[in-house]
Amino acid sequence: MLRFLTAGESHGRALVVILEGLPAGLTVDVDGIARDLRRRQGGYGRGRRMAIESDRADIISGVRAGETLGGPVAMLIENRDWPNWQHTMRAGVEPPPDAGGARRGPVTRPRPGHADLAGGAKYERDDLRDVLERASARETAARVAAGALARQLLARTGIRITSHVFTIGGFTLANRSQVDFARAQTLPDDSPLRCVDDGLQQQMIAEIDRAKEAGDTIGGAFEVIATGVPVGLGSYVQWDRKLDGRFAQALMSIPAIKAVGIGLGPDAATRPGSRVHDEIVRGDAARPTGLARPTNNAGGLEGGVTNGEDVRVSAYMKPISTLMKPLRSVDLSTMTESPAAIERSDVCAVPAAAVVGEAMVALVLADALLERFGGDSMTALERAMQSADATLRARFAR
Fold first, then answer.
1. Which of 95, 264, 375, 382 would suit a FRET pair with 155, their CA atoms being 20 to 30 Å apart?
2. What is the domain range of residue 123?
3. Strand arrangement, sheet containing 311-317
4. CATH number of the domain that residue 358 is part of
5. Total domains in the fold of the chain
């Protein structure tokens, strides 16, 4: 129902994203898109490029007079550093006479942990820059722009999304399930690591500093929380319609994410069933079913279907592959051992990855919402949701 494609290279002229499937009549908040792009560039441990780029998404189709038209929305995010890369990243065979930037040589020393070697082998490229430019996490800026529009669609229907970081290196927040949506939502946009525990956050910052001093990198984990999610998104009838599987695929597609959890996540494997499954009790009239859960270990999903509780999805990020003190590699031009290549990079990008995670969760939820309720316009979507809510309330009123 809702799909997107991105194009562009890390140091190319621009990133492009096309988002198809938004209903007509959604009021677009351009400042909201800019805010999410700005949040993606923040966080302690980011590299020098964040001081160069100031991302802005220019809408070039699909919106008129501030409202979606029902057709594809196309956005362009220009790379401000492009003048310094015109010679290296030119599209033509020969560079224009006025092309700027250094004449950079080919990249032939793959970085362990990056797509360099596997991508070069797959696409038969001798210069690994042809691989790393597209495999770079810079592409996620386009995802955040698309996710910002999905977030605005969800907000119109009462669904809100936030995130928080609960692990950096060896430091982990105790009992993150106690961090509810309201608590995570209070984190300011300029929070260094988006951690709700200030004392722990300072320890995490010190850990990042130690990694930087050692020429190393460090990973961590974050959780995305969505509240106001209606009952019945997703399905258990086929493997590819299960919503937890769709979340896992979306989050695992973010560069450096190596594991995904729903609710308790991996901790569910170490507990007895009596301490995993969420009991069902009588709730208040605000809930369409009139039922509630004292706990939310399932993360708002049972059988691949939303159950009305907050959706909680966690993602685990490995350390970034570019090290200032590089690991051993092989120079593919001579097949001799050599240190891996060094590209401009971050020490830690977990807070930024959390913003990308929000975008991917928003896109999956918006797709599932449109799949369940349909509607080519916002008024049709809202009408269908109101009807479904009334039907659900009537059913459980018995």
1. 264
2. 3-92+99-396
3. 171-172, 160-168, 220-227, 311-317, 257-262
4. 3.60.150.10
5. 1
